[in-house]
DNA sequence: AACCATATTGACCGATCGGTCAGAACAATC
DNA sequence: GATTGTTCTGACCGATCGGTCAATATGGTT
């Protein structure tokens, strides 16, 4: 039984920690690091404030944990990309995946955006290390696609930034978009239309001919 | 002399108010509305805290004034656009102007972004009123361009959002971009390269043929 | 029942928050 | 040199901030 109780206890702890993390993600995403208060997070999580600090140690530790959790969610993006890949398929998948991730984790995405806006004081290492390497390696492959004549000779870094910005926009600027469109929220139809638009413009804009590959319907991955 | 002293005095007041507004813009742009403190703004402006409140009334009034100032700066964008305009010229100009505005007013742009991230509590009226009309009227004209065969049949609203996001990205995400690129800041050369890239991809992506207008190189389609 | 590690939380701490106010400092008019 | 209106600011207010801590509650082991 001792073998079973341990996981049970830690499972309970895990449940509470997730409740705190989700509440904190909401508060931080709206008000940023400095603007968020532990009291507001505690209220959202329906726990006493002292309990938040018991589990998370400090405001900063809680915040950093949220950033790490969000970064881990992005790990799958553009994972298997090679010089032999089809640019149309890969970029389509890139666009679709980013749109979906933004819709799945709106609070985390906004939290990340707020951190960057604030000058990324807690993300120095990640941005200048992991992420820089990520961009450099993908850029090198895209560069090869251009040399192979698979697409126009565009700067791959600007292309990556373009896809990032265009997709993230619909999460981070949702308050503006819904008001401009006069809606409560974007529905599935909107998102499909937006995704198709971005695929059309970006792929065509890079001189990528749509072969037998993706577009509206097929395409596996 | 009495006629001259009055404007002199109010000119002095104007000078101080601008100093406060610029300091506040910096602080708010980094920490958002709730995260910013009047003390930090006062320190940045090198004035006593009570002086800030003497000139601005309250934290909220100061913040709203900054939002209005920023919105006024955007008024010139896409001002003279007609169904007879050349899409390539207009959209090129749109892209270039947005890039320049972001570089000219980085703090104001970030302040605006933070307000949207927070759910735009102070911008309801503007977004659902002025800005919605602005988008609707421009979208109607772009729609006509499509009908005239001047460009592909894309949703004009997504096109406007794309240009907004792609250009604003280089201001609001400057902290991420500089670290990923390993630079201190973007220089003129970078900005020219980025602008040209965006013009190339977006115009070509919308099926707009580059006539006798601008652009540096060729590009078929 | 005794024991112990972990969980829980009300009460409290010094610092800082936005905002008020009385009075000093200043400048122009008579 | 009074008078008057504006500018300026130190001192202060109640509320809230992140964080600490002692006391209590809980649950499994012996």
Quick overview of this protein structure:
By secondary structure, the first copy, chain A, is mostly helical.
- Per DSSP E runs of 2 or more residues, the count of β-strands of chain A stands at 0
Note the run of SSEs of chain A as H and E. HHHHHHHHHH
The helix-and-strand class of chain A reads mainly alpha
CATH architecture of the largest domain in chain A: Orthogonal Bundle
What proportion strand of chain A?
under 5%
Give the CATH topology of the largest domain in chain A: Tetracycline Repressor, domain 2
Name the descriptors.
disordered C terminus; 73% helix; DNA-binding; globular; 0% strand; homodimer; Arc Repressor Mutant, subunit A; mainly alpha; 221 residues; Tetracycline Repressor, domain 2; 10 helices; disordered N terminus; 2 domains
Give structural notes:
The structure is a homodimer of 221-residue chains. With 221 residues, chain A is mainly alpha-helical. Chain A has 2 domains: 2-68, Homeodomain-like (Arc Repressor Mutant, subunit A, Orthogonal Bundle), CATH 1.10.10.60; 74-205, Tetracycline Repressor, domain 2. Chain A has 10 helices and no strands. Chain A has helices at residues 2-35, 38-45, 49-56, 59-73, 87-104, 106-117, 124-147, 156-172, 174-181, 188-205. Chain A is globular and about 60 Å long. Chain A starts with a helix and ends in a 16-residue tail after the last helix. In chain A, 40% of the residues are buried. The model of chain A is unreliable at 1-8 and 212-221 (pLDDT under 50). At the A-B interface, helix 1, helix 6, helix 7, helix 8 and helix 9 of A face helix 1, helix 6, helix 7, helix 8 and helix 9 of B. Chain A binds a DNA duplex (30 and 30 nucleotides) through residues 1-2, 5, 9, 13, 37-39, 47-51, 53-55, 58-59.
């Amino acid at each position: 039984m001792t073998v079973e109780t341990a996981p049970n206890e830690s499972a309970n702890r895990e449940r509470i920690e997730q409740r705190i993390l989700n509440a904190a993600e909401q508060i931080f995403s709206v008000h940023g690091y400095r603007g968020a208060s532990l009291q507001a997070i505690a209220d959202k999580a329906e726990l006493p404030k002292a309990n938040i600090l018991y589990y998370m140690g400090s405001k900063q530790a809680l915040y950093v944990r949220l950033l790490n959790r969000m970064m881990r969610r992005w790990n799958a993006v553009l994972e298997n990309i090679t010089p032999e890949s089809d640019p149309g398929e890969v970029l389509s998948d890139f666009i679709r995946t980013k749109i979906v991730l933004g819709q799945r984790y709106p609070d985390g995405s906004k939290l990340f955006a707020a951190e960057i806006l604030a000058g990324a004081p807690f993300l120095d290492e990640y941005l200048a290390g992991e992420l820089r390497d990520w961009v450099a390696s993908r850029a090198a492959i895209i560069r090869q696609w251009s040399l192979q004549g698979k697409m126009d000779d565009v700067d791959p870094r600007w292309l990556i930034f373009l896809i990032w910005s265009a997709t993230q926009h619909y999460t981070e600027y949702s308050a503006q978009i819904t008001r401009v469109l006069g809606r409560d929220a974007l529905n599935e139809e909107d998102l499909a239309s937006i995704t198709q638009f971005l695929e059309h413009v970006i792929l065509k804009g890079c001189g990528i001919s749509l072969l037998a590959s993706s577009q509206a319907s097929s395409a596996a991955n």
